[in-house]
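Lab notebook, page 48
Experiment: co-folding of the full assembly
Goal: obtain a model of how the components sit together before planning crosslinking
Operator: M.T.
Materials (sequences as entered):
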Amino acid sequence: MVDKLGVGIGWRPEIDLTVEQLDVDFVEVVAENLHVGHLPESVLLLRERGVPVLPHAVSLSLGGAEPVDAGRVAHLGGLAEALGAPFVSDHVCFVRAGGLDSGHLMPLPRTREALDVLVANVKAAQADLPVPLALENVAALLEWPDGELTEGRFLAELVERTDCLLLVDVANLYANARNLGTDVGRFLDEIPLERLAYVHVAGGVEHQGVYHDTHAHAVLPEVLDVLKQLRDRIDPPGVLLERDDDYPADAELAGELAAIRAVLA
Amino acid sequence: MATSWTPTSAGSAELQPEELGFLAGGPGRAAEVAIVTLVEAGAVRISRNGVVSPVRTQHRPWTPLEAYVLRAAPRSLGDLVSTVAGSTQAESLRQSLIGRGLVRSVGQRNAVRWARRLLVVAVIAAVLLSMGDLLSFGYVVATVVSAIVLSLLVGRAGRPLTGSGRAAVRRLDRVATTSNRPALVAYYGLLGKVEGHLVWETLGMAPTAAATLKRRPRRNNNGGSASCGGGGCGSCSSRSCGSASGSDGGSSCGSGSSCGGGGGCGGGGGGGD
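Observation: model returned without errors.
Model output:
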C-alpha cells in the first residue's frame, strides 16, 4: 500500500490557474508534455506548496512486441526525480507497432503469450526507473479473440510477476462493462487491491450505443457507482479526476471533486 | 448566437464596452475588451502562460466579436488579440461606428489628407510665381494665410474620431474604474496603467500571460506623447482609433495626440494572423 494521496486532478496547461485554486491534495501530469529542464511555473508552484505531482505516461507501449524505448523510460524517470514523485505510471496497452503510432491506447490480447511480452517490457522499464511503476487498465472498444484470462486475472498475474503497482481507472472499467460486458465486481475481486496506487475517475458520453471515455464530459453517476464498489472493498490511497478537453467552469470541476470526496467518505 | 451591431444615431448612450474600446484604442483594444468580458462571464479562461481557452458553459447571445473570440480560441492572448483585431467582425464594428457618426471613414480622412497636400502645392506654386514676377507678393501672403486657415479648419476632419466619438471616449474616463473591468480595459488597454498599476496586473492576470501581448513602439509623429482617448495606448495599431490607413502622422484619437501612424501597443490591433 502506498502513502495516502487524497483527492487530486489532472494538471493541464489550459487549466493551470484553476488547478492551483482548487482544493486538491495531489496532481498528475502527462509526462510526454513536460520537459525536465523547463517545468511549467504552475507545476513548480504546486511542488513548492508540497502538492505531490505524479508523472503519468502514455507512450511507453509496454504491451507492444517491440522493446521499450529506453529514451522514453529515461524521460519518465527524470521527470519523477525532478518532481520528487513517489511513483510513475503508464497503461496496460500498446500504442505503436511496426513504426506506426496508433494515437490510441490499444488493448492487449489477454493471452499468456501477450502477458509474457508485457511482463518483460515492464521489468525492463522498472530496471531503469528510479521509482515504482503503476500500471493502468484501459478502456477498450474491442476484445482480441482467444483471450485466456479475464482482465482482472490478467492484471493480477502482471502484478504478481512484476511487483508493479496498480492504477485503477473506474471510468475505463465502467466503459468496458458497458461496451464489452466486463463484470465490475469480479474485476475488483480479482485484482490485488493492496497494490493499488491510486484511482482515475473521468467523464464520458454514449454515442450510437457505444460509451466513449472522452475525458471531455461530466463524470456519470454510474462511474461514481463503480468508485463506490471499489471503496466498499478498500480505502484507496488516492483518487484523481481526469479532464482533458472542453473544460468546464471552476465550480463544476470543484463539484466533481466534491462528489468524489463524498463517495470516499 | 452572435448579435449584430445595430447602427443608431450618433452618441454613446448605447455603446457597448468593446465599441468604446474601439473608439479609445482601435480594433486591438476592442478585442481585449471582448476577451475580458468573456473572462468576466466565465466563458473563457486564461492560463498562466497566456492561453485563452473556452469554458464549456451555457450559450448566451454574444456580440460578433465575442463569438469570434470563442471560435478562435484556444490561442495565446497576444495572438488572439491580433487575430480578432484583424477579423471581419472588427471591421464590421468599425463600419458600425462610422455609420453611427463616431468614427470617420477612410475616404473622409484620405480626402482631408489630399486637401492638405493641395494647399501645400498651392503655396509652393504661389511662391514660385512670385519669384518669377508673375504674382504679386500680396497674393502670395494671401495664399499662405488662406492655406494655414484652411489647414486648421480641415485638420479636425482628419482625425479618426468625430466630435461625438471623442466625447464618448471622454465619458468613458468616468466609468473606467477597477469595479468596471471591461470599461477599464476599454479606456486604458491591458498594457495601460491605472493608478500606477498595469491594467493586466489589476485584473489578476499572470505576468507570463501579459507577456504574450505585443507592445509595439509608437511612432511619435509630432514629438509629443501618444495616447488614444487620453488613456494610454493599449491596443493602438496601424488601423487603430478608427484609422484604416495609419500612414498619416498626427492622426488623433480622442485626446488629440497621435496614435494613427503605425504605432501603438497591446496586441497589435490591426495585424491578424
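Interpretation: Chain B touches chain A through 14 residues (CB under 8 Å).
Next step: discuss with group before ordering constructs.
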